[in-house]
Design goal:
Number of helices: 6
Largest sheet: none
Helix content: 55-70%
Shape: globular
Structural class: mainly alpha
Order of helices and strands: HHHHHH
Length: about 130
């Protein structure tokens, strides 16, 4: 059995979720990160908590342009490309408008809004990888 998250990491996780405006989405983020094992911070294993904290911290540090590029990378990795190999921006923007958490085009998201969209797309990417494997 793996060790559970400690108090220090629990505080770090709550702080970063708050900074990203993701406290309300905490359970679904944790559930996706643990592949459905749990949605509770208290039930996170230490290694799960550390990888989630690292991912969320990298999201906070990124500039808006870097965050948009990260989103485009995830979609391209899932095959969202045009015939000439470029990112299918029409499809990506349609996704952002229809299923993005603020329902607007990618370039309309502000730097403060992008981390949550990056997290949303990252979770979709992880599920895509699970299906492919």
């Amino acid at each position: 059995m793996y060790p559970k998250i400690d108090h220090k990491d629990r505080k770090r996780l709550f702080a970063i979720l708050g900074k990203l405006g993701l406290k309300e989405d905490r359970a679904s983020i944790i559930e996706d990160h643990t592949q459905g094992r749990t949605g509770s911070v208290a039930e996170l294993y230490d290694h799960e908590a550390n990888s989630l904290i690292s991912f969320l911290q990298s999201t906070v540090k990124d500039s808006a342009d870097k965050q948009r590029k990260k989103i485009i990378y995830y979609f391209r990795a899932m095959g969202w490309e045009t015939e000439d190999g470029a990112a299918d921006m029409k499809r990506i923007n349609e996704f952002c408008i229809e299923k993005g958490y603020l329902n607007k085009p990618l370039n309309s998201y502000t730097k403060a809004e992008l981390p949550k969209l990056v997290s949303q797309v990252h979770l979709i990417y992880k599920k895509h990888l699970e299906k492919v494997q």
